[in-house]
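[Meeting: bench + compute handoff]

Bench side (C.D.) handed over the final construct sequence. Compute side (W.E.) agreed to return the predicted structure before the next meeting so the bench team could plan truncations. Sequence as handed over:
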Amino acid sequence: MSAAQSDVQVPGQRATAEEHSALVAPALDALVVAAWFATAGLVGAVVWWQVTTLPKVTKVGDAASLEPAELLKQVGIDGWFFVIAAVGGLLSGVLLLIWRCRDPLLMVVLVALGGAVASWVMVYVGLALGPPEEVGALGGMKDGAQVPMQLKLHAQGVAWMWSTFAVLGAIVYVWILRKPDDEEP
């Protein structure tokens, strides 16, 4: 067989190779985004654990209470989650679209889903890194004893910040940072 004949492909075989490539690229993008956000959520959880000052819960009779000064620290738990998720989501959205922008619409959807993965990882790893449940820890202690509160979200809506800011970062890239000559045919 000559070199010219080996370059000729059967039309049916070429379509199959193109179909295969059309399925592999989005699957690879999804895998990259999932790995990126799982790692970002893990790093975010460690940062959240390190920067957050946990409030102390005080045992009063059969109940647990927070002193007024400790309430500010409780708000700080959610505040630090918000800051970490906003910065991580925004950077992730921009960087992932710079790196893997074959199909911008697909990437925006993947980034939104990836933000949910990062949020889930950050919440559960943060909970695992923090102290145990305060009610159980206070069980055998005398009145006035204090234990740190768990590292968990109190304002559940803050968990959406990873996805929100990741999509915002992706949109900033698509509408503002992306040059018209970056478009693929």
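W.E. noted at the follow-up: Residues 26-179 form one domain. C.D. will use this when planning the next construct.
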